[in-house]
Specification:
about 170 residues; alpha/beta; Rossmann fold; five-stranded parallel sheet; 6 helices
């Protein structure tokens, strides 16, 4: 694990968020971090499933509904952080644009953050997706190798110039 940017002094809680391809273990790691951090865990997959259920049929549906969900979750997260709560936000930070949203939440709340970057091989991700397709945890969707490739084509690993405190994970979540 390494830190790209040292955290500045903070006034609220700490935001934990995650970057990694589908099947990398983001949700598993989010759950592992939440309890010892005494953090509020907010899972995009669970919220989308409970709020929109069958409305999510395509990747475009996911993108549209995810943006709508962020308009509700963003202010909630800022308020939780301002009150000193730690928040584990299990939403993908898989593009620079997505990470800009997380950083804006921290800036609005005056809180610190940790971006957990799960740098996991495609083969491992695909194996985990196969298992998840059978287990079907709440909020999960069946993914094929073709869907994984399509989604992965949009993936952008974090860069030094993004001013993020990154904790790298390259082992099992």
């Amino acid at each position: 694990m390494s830190s790209i940017v040292k955290e500045r002094a903070t006034f609220g809680g700490r935001l934990h968020f995650f970057c990694g391809k589908a099947g990398a273990g983001k949700s598993t790691l989010a759950r592992k971090i939440a309890e010892p951090e005494q953090a509020t865990l907010i899972s995009e997959d669970v919220w989308l499933s409970r709020l929109y259920g069958d409305e999510m049929q395509t990747f475009d549906d996911y993108k549209r509904l995810s943006l709508r969900l962020k308009t509700v979750v963003g202010p909630l997260v800022v308020e939780l952080l301002r009150t000193g709560r730690n928040v584990v936000l299990d939403f993908p930070a898989n593009t620079k644009m997505a990470r800009d949203w997380f950083r804006a939440l921290c800036e609005q709340s005056g809180s610190g953050h940790v971006l957990h970057f799960l740098d996991i091989t495609d083969a491992t991700c695909l194996s985990r997706i196969d298992n998840r397709n059978v287990e079907r945890p709440e909020g999960s969707h069946h993914l094929t190798p073709e869907m994984f490739s399509y989604i992965s084509a949009h993936f952008e690993p974090p860069q030094d110039d993004e001013r993020l405190h990154v904790r790298r994970h390259d082992g099992p979540a």
